[in-house]
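Final report, closing paragraph on structural work. Over the funding period we assembled a curated collection of sequence-structure pairs, and we close with a single example.
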Amino acid sequence: MRNSLFILLFLLCSMSISAQTTIPGRVINRENRKPLAYAQIQTSDGRQILTNIDGSFELPLTKDTLRISISYVGFKSLTTLVHRSTRYLQIGLTPSFEQLNTVLISSGPNPADEIVKRAIARREQNDPEKALEGFSYNSYSKFIIDNEYSQIELTADSTSATIETIIDEGRAYLSEKVSEHLFVRNKGSKEKVTGIKTAGFEEPVYNVLAMEVNPLSLYKKDYQLYKTEYAGPLAKNALNNYEYRILDTTSTARPAYMVYFKPRREKVVAGLEGILYLDTLSLAIQKAKAQLLGAVKLEVVHDYKYYPEKDIWFPSEQTTTIRPGSGGKEIAVFGGTISVGAVQQKKGILSTIFGSKQISGDLYLTSTTRNSDINLDFRGEISNPGAEIDVTAIAPERDSVFWASNRQIEFNIRDKATREKVDSLIKVGNVKRKLQVKNAIASGSYPLGFWDLDLSKIFKFNNYEGIRLGFGGKTNDRVSEKFNLKGYTTYGFKDEVVKYGIGTQIYLNKRKGTNLNFFFSRDIQEIASFDYLKGQNTFSILEPRFVNINYFYNYRTYWTSLEHRLSPKLNTELRLGREEIWQIQDYSYLKNNNAYRDYELSTATLSFLWQPFSKFLSTPGKTILLEKNFPQFTGQIQQSVAAFDGDFNFTRIGLKAEHEIKRLDQSRTEFILEGNYGFGDLPLTHAFHAYPNNPNRSNIFRRFSVAGRNSFETMYFNEFYSNRQAMLHIRHQLRPFRISDSFQPEFVFISRHAIGDFTDISDHQNINFNTLEHGYSEAGMELNKIFAGFGLSAAYRYGAYHLPTFKQNFSFKFTLQLQL
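Its predicted structure, as stored:
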């Protein structure tokens, strides 16, 4: 055994002697010591290396010495000899005022700006999605989280550690994907995933597919990478966001301008820093390299291939790498923000995912995609067009023969070792459990064995029930993959009444979201509320309006419904129900001279959510929302019939349109336009209110509560009701005030308007209320995220329903914004 150990040590030492040596270094301005981004290093063996945005570089040596030449526009070139024994190489260049070859640059105050203007003007001819009627290609992607340097220190006491390191040579994470990509102009694009594998998981981690790791085009207005949006370097307004400089031209068969770009308004608009290789003839992108240096080091390299028959450069490969940085900027990964602490310190996002208490400083994340079988004349059909990414049923089941024939990138020994390491790593780190908890919490539940606990049922408070405590939830796939059982029970300590519900959901087709539901419940409901079956956020940590509601009615309901996604972008539900209603307040509805205090309803409700611009992922088991885009539309129609022992015949219709404009400077404007219309024998319990949120108290500070996001903060509860109404909410959030890294409050301007009417008010007995036929208006301001998610809100009521005194029109409240 001892001899084998010595042989192993001898082999390792021999390998280290003959192995490639990597020498780190930096290129700086000799006069002011500032780094020179993208300086060119030409080696004597024919390689060309560009420095990073901090002037750093890594020089690989396979021989004892290597001659290098360093050049940078506006500086004198320098040639030096590098020895293997060099530990670190810092090179200072002296400024020079020599001009570029005038043949290669245009006239004007800044030749680079002129070239970029021409490149922007030719985007339509150079962007494959604009220039071609259609195209298709295949891709292979490999996504890795790894340690960059697997250095083995050989000392007298480290033999066992050395062997352990060799055994543990696998990576921390690896995922592979093979896809077919289709694009037809005016019909959109589709990625059809034909093979996917995540080391250590029986089922792939589909979240990786949603991360926009390798975006196809650099021509778009916004360049999205890992859930973060950056200004596009060739967008229409790129010259407002970037500074440009020509570094050189290439001497290839198709020469290119090497154009350096740098953010012009870094604190206002998120931007990258890098180089565009622009074809001197067509000004198309031949290659691009972009970097971000801060809390993390981000590097993206795009490679393109030229197709002379179409005179177009088409993407051939992209590599994205993230390493720990030195602080400053941030980037979003796995739906959260990575900063210095998140990568390098405890309780970071990567350590949370992989269960490690300490993440090594040489950790890096890389994703490489290589394209093949490119067809620039595709005219075929795109199936299931509503889903941007479609995972075929066989994709997770692919065998080794499939992977061996489809890998476009070498699958080396370290890749193979990953499979052996990750299984144990995932078990030790309890990763599957963490992913299960994360997915459950996103829908408002917490998994406890076979039961997903409904977090919204645990605690609530309102003026009528007081403290409302409860327990609820549903069974998960541990019980059955074909159905769930669900239910809840709650108790109000002020009204001293138990409320409850019980039901089941049968999964008819998980991929298409087809479910059959049955439910029975006894509970209370706010007077004149209109709840959309689709499009509602079913879970929130706090419901501001619920706290101050004091006007409810009792109900007992039996219903069955069928849910179905007509397409990934259109989700529907049809519900048939029976409702028994009895009043809490002294209210009755007059119909044919009969006063109904208690009544029964037989209803049919059709609801839909249409998200035409959102992006979806369709997997064999479900449809996943990748990116919520606007506008989106929610609609519902409910018909109550005076049959099957129903007392009233009425119709209720609701339609809501939501739109949001996001800007690269992190400001945004939101619009919500909603209309409701009801006719027939419509009792007040089923009329409409405009989401009032002002308690009925005279003193401003006695009305101090939590402001809602889309409620009227100066409108008093029970003040207005309508059987037809329209509402408009406008919120404009300014760019966050960056006072410090941890203190970035947001200022919001708010404008809200409502108009409505109510016919036959006299049919509603023992209650007084106003109508909205003259139009209701309020304006407000919010200062959010002042401390721990809390902020302040102020609003003022004006217009036709302005009240006599200031304090009657004014509201002052908390705001609370928490994210799970």
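The domain at 17-93 is CATH 2.60.40.10 (Immunoglobulin-like). The two ends are 54 Å apart (CA to CA). We thank the funder for supporting this effort.
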